[in-house]
Design brief:
This protein has 344 residues and is of the alpha/beta class. The chain has 14 helices and 9 strands. It folds into 3 domains: 167 residues, Rossmann fold (3-Layer(aba) Sandwich), CATH 3.40.50.300; 68 residues, Helicase, Ruva Protein, domain 3, CATH 1.10.8; 79 residues, Arc Repressor Mutant, subunit A (Orthogonal Bundle), CATH 1.10.10. Strands 2-3-6-1-7 form a 5-stranded parallel β-sheet, covered by helices on one side. Bound molecules: adenosine-5'-triphosphate and magnesium ion.
Length: 344
């Protein structure tokens, strides 16, 4: 199995999650399940750059955590037979932190910057000429003796990943020729991922058990991997190791994943919104303060799936629970005369 380079300062899960993700990550485009349109477009640019013998253009991936941004970034060098250097926005506090990556880059190699929206503005400005003209401007000396030299670079490819493309500056976004958005996966796609990964883990999973894990994984492959891992441990400890529907149901109940696949944090969010804030509308900061969590965790990790499944809606006045959101926490939604339009 290919070893993954360590990504400094990257977020999204603990060490266990990261090891498991690395072991289960697809290595070639043909192994990637779902995201059909993205896979097709990447297939075309890969083909074109092989035929033209040109480096790949800079690509930005965005979407909620665990949907495959790092997976796509690591698949590309395998397809091209080139190398990848990995770093992340928070690890690059000044231009000097980025310089070694730029000077080590070879023609056609890939530089992957995770959480690129968290790169400070000075580093962002330093990277513009590197992306556009493959050179960097370095200031030598200080005061009146300072002079700028322009250093040429090899034609590398920058791959950026972000959970917040809205936080990237316009000029930064424009310098990526391709911008790919990853969306949540369907249940059949996740069931296929569970089945393939069960095989990699040498575990028997019945088709109905795979579907149940898929249905309760928040549309997210990383979550599906974690649920599969847990169900496998449960089946091994409590039965003969084969993951069946009944064992998945017991395992998920034990880890407090509800019938819709929402975890404890999702449910706490809905309960706070419905019971403390009377269903909203309320600002994310107020919700975050009550839940004692950073607002970023709410807007990056919890809300995207609740929005997509219409447990909540987002309006200029803030977050608001839908009828489905109310019912999920066992509260009767207000009638038409109450908050009106949102409720059927
Ligand atoms: N399309 C896919 N097909 C199969 N497995 C996938 C796919 N996308 C993601 N996975 C699985 O989910 C795991 C998590 O994906 P990945 O690390 O690429 O997410 P990410 O978008 O980079 O998340 P983050 O924003 O937290 O960095 C992978 O290790 C892989 O096992
Ligand atoms: Mg990632």
């Amino acid at each position: 199995m290919a070893r993954e380079p360590i990504v400094q300062g990257a977020t999204g899960g603990g060490d266990d999650d990261r090891l498991r993700d690395a072991a289960l990550r697809p290595r070639f485009l043909r192994e990637v399940i779902g995201q059909k349109a993205v896979v097709q477009r990447l297939g075309i640019v890969l083909n074109a750059c092989k035929k033209l013998k040109e480096p790949l253009s800079h690509i930005l991936f965005d979407g909620p955590p665990g949907l495959g941004k790092t997976t796509f970034a690591t698949v590309l060098p395998n397809e091209l037979g080139t190398t990848i250097q990995m770093t992340s926005g928070p690890a690059l506090s000044k231009p000097a932190d980025l310089l070694p990556f730029l000077t080590n880059a070879t023609d056609g190699s890939i530089l992957f910057i995770d959480e690129i929206h968290r790169m400070p503005r000075v580093v962002e400005e330093f990277i513009y000429p590197a992306m556009e003209d493959f050179r960097v401007d370095i200031v030598l000396g200080e005061g009146i003796n300072a002079r700028t030299i322009s250093m040429p670079l090899k034609h590398f490819t920058l791959i950026g990943a972000t959970t917040r493309s809205g936080m990237l500056s316009g000029p930064m976004r424009d310098r990526f020729k391709m911008h790919e958005h990853l969306d949540f996966y369907t249940v059949p796609e996740l069931a296929e991922i569970v089945t393939v990964n069960a095989r990699k883990l040498q575990t028997m999973v019945t088709p109905d058990a795979a579907l149940e894990i898929a249905r309760r994984s928040r549309g997210t492959p990383r979550v599906a991997n974690a649920r599969l891992w847990w169900a496998r441990s449960f089946a091994t400890s409590e039965a003969n190791g084969e993951v069946t529907l009944a064992l998945v149901q017991q395992a998920l109940a034990m880890s407090e994943v509800d019938s819709e696949g929402l975890d404890k944090q999702d449910c706490r969010y809905l309960e706070t919104l419905v019971k403390v804030f009377a269903g909203g509308p309320t600002g994310v900061e107020a919700l975050a303060a009550t839940m004692n969590l950073p607002a970023d965790t709410l807007s990056d990790e919890i809300e995207p799936y609740l929005l997509r499944e219409q447990f909540i809606v987002r309006s200029p006045r803030g977050r608001q629970a839908t009828a489905r959101g109310y019912l999920h926490v066992g509260v009767k939604p207000p009638g038409q005369s109450g908050q009106g339009v949102l409720f059927e």
